[in-house]
Amino acid sequence: MYDISTRKRALALVAQGRSLNSVSKEMDVSRHAITCWLSRLEPLSRTPPCIRCQDTPRIPEDRLAYAYLLGLYLGDGYIISKPRQHYLMVTCTASWPGLVDAAEDAMRSVLPGPSINRLERAGCIDVKSYTKHWVCLFPQHGPGKKHERPIVLEPWQQAVVDAHPWEFVRGLIHSDGCRIINWTTRTVGGERKRYEYPRYFFSNKSDDIRRLFTNALDLVGVEWTSLARGSDPFNISVARKASVALMDAHVGPKF
Question: pTM of the prediction?
Answer without folding.
Answer: 0.78
